[in-house]
Amino acid sequence: MRTLPLLLLSLTALTQSMSAMAAPTPLTPHTAEYQVNYGDIELGKANYTLPNAEGGIFKYRFDSSLSLLLLTDVRHLLSEFTQNETQLNPLRYSQQRKGVGANFTEQTAFAKDQGLIHTRYKDKKGQFPYDGAIFDPLMVQLQFRLDISAGKEELDYKMVKDNELDEYKFRVVGKERMTIESGSYNTVKIEVVRENNKKRQTFFWMAPELAYLPVRLTHFEKGSKQLDIKLLKYHFDETANQEVLPANIVEKPQVPKLLGTAEN
Predict the structure, then answer these.
(1) pLDDT, tens digit, for every residue of 87-116?
(2) What is the largest CA-CA distance in the chain?
(3) pLDDT tens digits, 229-245
(4) What is the pLDDT of residue 254?
(5) pLDDT in the model for residue 240
(6) I want to staple 212 with a disulfide (CB 3.0 to 4.6 A). Which of 145, 160, 219, 235 is the partner?
(7) pTM score
(8) Taking the alpha carbons of 186, 204, 73, 258 in that order, is the dihedral positive or negative?
(9) What is the mean pLDDT of the segment spanning 176-183?
(10) Residue 27, exposed/middle/buried by CB under 10 A (0-12, 13-18, 19+)?
């Protein structure tokens, strides 16, 4: 009879542990690997990595290596940002591209205290006002996941990319069961809104049980499938991310100098 209370205690502990593990958030440390196809042709792999925050600063990374016949494209992207409740605030963004064709680097420094955004893309410099919520092309994906998990309906984002300041809009199409090689997922289907270009369509499917991690993205040009990106595997760390520091005590990083310049 003594074993029964011990068994119940163990089951309770196990249930509590599974409950804690069963609800990752978009900012839970995780990795995700994707297969990238051009139509039915395999191009290569792409990987996302979000480690634990250090000193209130997150570092989100994307790496891809794609090839088609003699064409190659290797990219490394890094986004550094902080969190203030449900709002992500960018600090620095960089991209390195190598392969067939022109190699290039891209850097963006978000100097909120100065009210300015400094950019450098393919040796061309730019400057934009830091006005309101704004994102880089990588960490905006995490903000999108935070917003949709919170039930936000207006999915509009200003983004700095390629020395330009653009606005991107998305709309929820509906719910759909998505079955791919890595498994079967209940998903929310999203469409990129392009009001002036009906010849291009982009859809992606996000799994709520995976903290709205995208499981598939498909891009069409003139009705023909061009890109098809599918989730191969993922992993969420069991250890929770460190507690988010209040915005007023997060150490303010120095605004980085752009490569090859002496300016901030």
Answers:
(1) 999 999 999 999 999 999 999 999 999 999
(2) 76
(3) 999 999 999 755 544 44
(4) 45
(5) 52
(6) 145
(7) 0.83
(8) negative
(9) 96
(10) buried
Query: Please, which pLDDT band fits residue 1 given cuts at 50, 70 and 90?
Result: very low
What tokens were used for 159? Answer: 């983004």
Query: Alpha-carbon distance 199 to 70, whole Å?
Result: 28
Q: Tokens 């011990």: give the residue.
A: 6
Q: Which two tokens stand for residue 102?
A: 């022109």
Three-class secondary structure assignment of the chain: CCHHHHHHHHHHHHHHHHHHHCCCCCCCCEEEEEEEEECCEEEEEEEEEECCCECCEEEEEEEEEEEECCEEEEEEEEEEEEEECCEEEEEEEEEEEEECCCCEEEEEEEECCCCEEEEEECCEEEEEECCCCCECCCHHHHHHHHHHHCCCCCEEEEEEECCEEEEEEEEEEEEEEEEECCEEEEEEEEEEECCCCCCEEEEEEEEHHHCCEEEEEEEEECCEEEEEEEEEEEEECCCCCCCCCCCCCCCCCCCCCCCCCCCC
